[in-house]
Amino acid sequence: QVQLVESGGGLVQTGGSLRLSCAASGRTFSNYAVSWFRQAPGKEREFVASISWSGGVTSYADSAKGRFTISRDNAKNTGYLQMNRLKPEDTAVYYCNAEHYWGQGTQVTVSS
User: Fold this and answer.
1) Distance (Å, rounded) from C-alpha 12 to C-alpha 60?
2) N or C end of the chain, less CB within 10 A?
3) CB 94 within 8 Å of CB 61
């Protein structure tokens, strides 16, 4: 069992930055790849970024490339999503995922 808790969301203006955190507890966090997904109102949940268990391999949705950076600190059992140059279309609930485990989500709102 793995528990995931996201934090760091909030309200930011267009062009601003936020760093989301995903704190894990339970089974060994470093065993799992970690991904971030997001879901905007009325839309399906979509992939944002992922990072391998070691941190050596990352992947991004086209919408995130060049603006978002995924990272992890296995010593702290925490994953991160640094989001820069935010746009109103980034407004969504952001979820952390590890295998079939999900966090409760954190709201990100970008005002125009």
Assistant:
1) 22
2) N
3) no
Determine the residue type at 12. V
Side-chain-facing half-sphere of 38: CA atoms under 13 Å: 23
Q: What is the pLDDT of residues 64-99, one digit of tens each?
A: 999 999 999 999 999 999 999 999 999 999 999 999
The number of helices, as runs of H, and strands, as runs of E, in the chain is: 0, 11
Tokens of 108: 């990100």
Rounded Cα gap, residues 56 and 66, in angstroms: 18
Residue 97 CB coordination number (10 Å):
21
User: Position 106: which residue type?
Assistant: T
d(CA 64, CA 53): 20
Tens digits of per-residue pLDDT, 48-63? 999 999 989 999 999 9
End-to-end, the C-alpha distance of the chain in Å comes to 40
Distance CA 100, CA 14 (A): 33
